[in-house]
Amino acid sequence: MKITLLVIGKTDAGYFIDAVSEYQKRLEHYIPFEIQVIPDIKNTKSLTADQQKEKEGELILRSLQAGDYLVLLDDKGKEYTSMQFAAYIEKKTHTVAKRLVFLIGGPYGFARSVYDKANEKLTLSRMTFSHQMVRLIFVEQLYRAMTILNNEPYHHE
Description:
- This is Ribosomal RNA large subunit methyltransferase H.
- This protein is of the alpha/beta class.
- It has helices at 14-27, 49-63, 82-95, 112-117, 131-149; strands at residues 2-8, 33-38, 69-79, 99-104, 120-123.
- The longest helix is centred in the last third of the chain and has 19 residues, at 131-149.
- Helices cover 43% and strands 22% of the residues.
- It has a domain at 1-39 and 64-124: 3-Layer(aba) Sandwich (Alpha/beta knot).
- The protein is globular.
Protein backbone atom coordinates (compact mmCIF):
# COMPACT_ATOMS: atom_id res chain seq x y z
CA MET A 1 0.00 0.00 0.00
CA LYS A 2 1.09 3.54 -0.74
CA ILE A 3 -0.14 6.63 1.09
CA THR A 4 -0.75 9.71 -1.03
CA LEU A 5 -1.51 13.20 0.21
CA LEU A 6 -3.42 14.89 -2.60
CA VAL A 7 -3.48 18.70 -2.38
CA ILE A 8 -4.73 21.66 -4.40
CA GLY A 9 -2.02 24.19 -5.22
CA LYS A 10 1.63 24.39 -4.31
CA THR A 11 3.04 25.61 -1.03
CA ASP A 12 4.63 29.05 -1.27
CA ALA A 13 6.11 29.55 2.19
CA GLY A 14 9.64 28.21 2.43
CA TYR A 15 9.35 27.26 6.10
CA PHE A 16 6.35 25.00 5.33
CA ILE A 17 8.16 23.48 2.34
CA ASP A 18 11.19 22.69 4.52
CA ALA A 19 9.13 21.21 7.36
CA VAL A 20 6.91 19.09 5.10
CA SER A 21 10.01 17.86 3.22
CA GLU A 22 11.66 16.84 6.49
CA TYR A 23 8.70 14.67 7.52
CA GLN A 24 8.32 13.32 4.00
CA LYS A 25 11.97 12.21 4.16
CA ARG A 26 11.43 10.58 7.55
CA LEU A 27 8.36 8.71 6.28
CA GLU A 28 10.37 7.01 3.51
CA HIS A 29 11.86 4.79 6.23
CA TYR A 30 8.43 3.37 7.08
CA ILE A 31 6.01 3.40 4.17
CA PRO A 32 5.73 4.46 0.52
CA PHE A 33 4.46 8.06 0.68
CA GLU A 34 3.99 10.84 -1.85
CA ILE A 35 2.49 14.28 -2.05
CA GLN A 36 0.61 14.86 -5.29
CA VAL A 37 -0.16 18.49 -6.16
CA ILE A 38 -3.08 19.49 -8.34
CA PRO A 39 -2.34 22.92 -9.87
CA ASP A 40 -4.38 25.89 -8.68
CA ILE A 41 -7.33 26.87 -10.85
CA LYS A 42 -6.54 29.98 -12.90
CA ASN A 43 -8.77 33.08 -13.12
CA THR A 44 -10.78 32.27 -10.00
CA LYS A 45 -11.91 35.89 -9.56
CA SER A 46 -14.55 35.35 -12.24
CA LEU A 47 -15.84 32.15 -10.57
CA THR A 48 -18.29 31.68 -7.73
CA ALA A 49 -17.21 29.48 -4.82
CA ASP A 50 -19.40 26.65 -6.16
CA GLN A 51 -17.91 26.97 -9.66
CA GLN A 52 -14.40 26.84 -8.21
CA LYS A 53 -15.29 23.76 -6.14
CA GLU A 54 -16.70 22.05 -9.25
CA LYS A 55 -13.58 22.77 -11.32
CA GLU A 56 -11.34 21.55 -8.51
CA GLY A 57 -13.58 18.50 -8.12
CA GLU A 58 -13.09 17.57 -11.78
CA LEU A 59 -9.30 17.78 -11.37
CA ILE A 60 -9.42 15.78 -8.15
CA LEU A 61 -11.49 12.99 -9.68
CA ARG A 62 -9.14 12.83 -12.69
CA SER A 63 -6.19 12.45 -10.29
CA LEU A 64 -7.63 9.35 -8.66
CA GLN A 65 -6.74 5.85 -9.79
CA ALA A 66 -8.84 2.70 -9.89
CA GLY A 67 -8.74 1.06 -6.47
CA ASP A 68 -7.88 4.22 -4.53
CA TYR A 69 -9.34 4.52 -1.04
CA LEU A 70 -10.22 8.21 -0.67
CA VAL A 71 -10.24 9.95 2.71
CA LEU A 72 -11.25 13.62 2.80
CA LEU A 73 -9.54 15.80 5.37
CA ASP A 74 -12.73 17.63 6.27
CA ASP A 75 -13.82 19.57 9.35
CA LYS A 76 -16.92 17.35 9.61
CA GLY A 77 -14.90 14.14 9.58
CA LYS A 78 -14.12 11.67 12.32
CA GLU A 79 -11.60 12.90 14.88
CA TYR A 80 -8.83 10.67 16.26
CA THR A 81 -6.17 10.93 18.91
CA SER A 82 -2.64 10.22 17.66
CA MET A 83 -2.83 6.69 19.08
CA GLN A 84 -6.19 6.08 17.38
CA PHE A 85 -4.85 7.45 14.09
CA ALA A 86 -1.89 5.06 14.32
CA ALA A 87 -4.30 2.14 14.78
CA TYR A 88 -6.36 3.45 11.84
CA ILE A 89 -3.26 3.53 9.61
CA GLU A 90 -2.25 0.04 10.71
CA LYS A 91 -5.72 -1.30 9.85
CA LYS A 92 -5.65 0.39 6.45
CA THR A 93 -2.27 -1.18 5.63
CA HIS A 94 -4.07 -4.54 5.83
CA THR A 95 -7.29 -3.57 4.05
CA VAL A 96 -6.32 -1.08 1.31
CA ALA A 97 -4.76 -2.80 -1.67
CA LYS A 98 -3.31 0.10 -3.66
CA ARG A 99 -3.33 3.74 -2.58
CA LEU A 100 -4.70 5.28 0.59
CA VAL A 101 -5.35 8.84 -0.58
CA PHE A 102 -5.85 11.67 1.89
CA LEU A 103 -7.24 14.80 0.24
CA ILE A 104 -6.89 18.43 1.27
CA GLY A 105 -9.37 20.45 -0.77
CA GLY A 106 -9.34 24.01 -1.98
CA PRO A 107 -10.33 27.12 -0.03
CA TYR A 108 -14.08 26.46 -0.34
CA GLY A 109 -14.07 22.77 0.46
CA PHE A 110 -15.13 19.91 -1.78
CA ALA A 111 -17.60 19.56 -4.64
CA ARG A 112 -20.54 17.20 -4.12
CA SER A 113 -18.96 14.80 -6.67
CA VAL A 114 -15.86 14.50 -4.45
CA TYR A 115 -17.95 13.85 -1.33
CA ASP A 116 -19.79 11.17 -3.28
CA LYS A 117 -16.54 9.49 -4.32
CA ALA A 118 -14.99 9.58 -0.84
CA ASN A 119 -14.83 6.45 1.29
CA GLU A 120 -14.70 8.45 4.52
CA LYS A 121 -13.90 11.80 6.14
CA LEU A 122 -11.35 12.55 8.82
CA THR A 123 -10.58 15.80 10.64
CA LEU A 124 -7.26 16.81 12.12
CA SER A 125 -8.97 19.29 14.44
CA ARG A 126 -12.25 21.08 14.94
CA MET A 127 -10.24 24.29 14.54
CA THR A 128 -9.60 25.82 11.12
CA PHE A 129 -6.03 25.93 9.80
CA SER A 130 -4.53 27.26 6.60
CA HIS A 131 -4.18 24.62 3.90
CA GLN A 132 -0.39 25.03 4.10
CA MET A 133 -0.51 24.27 7.81
CA VAL A 134 -2.80 21.26 7.33
CA ARG A 135 -0.19 19.69 5.05
CA LEU A 136 2.43 19.99 7.78
CA ILE A 137 0.12 18.77 10.54
CA PHE A 138 -0.92 15.77 8.45
CA VAL A 139 2.61 14.63 7.54
CA GLU A 140 3.73 15.09 11.16
CA GLN A 141 0.80 13.01 12.41
CA LEU A 142 1.48 10.33 9.81
CA TYR A 143 5.12 10.22 10.91
CA ARG A 144 3.99 10.08 14.54
CA ALA A 145 1.67 7.17 13.68
CA MET A 146 4.57 5.30 12.09
CA THR A 147 6.75 5.78 15.17
CA ILE A 148 3.90 4.63 17.44
CA LEU A 149 3.39 1.51 15.33
CA ASN A 150 7.13 0.79 15.53
CA ASN A 151 7.34 1.42 19.30
CA GLU A 152 9.79 4.28 18.83
CA PRO A 153 10.20 7.07 21.40
CA TYR A 154 8.93 10.02 19.27
CA HIS A 155 5.44 9.88 20.86
CA HIS A 156 4.90 10.11 24.62
CA GLU A 157 1.70 9.23 26.46
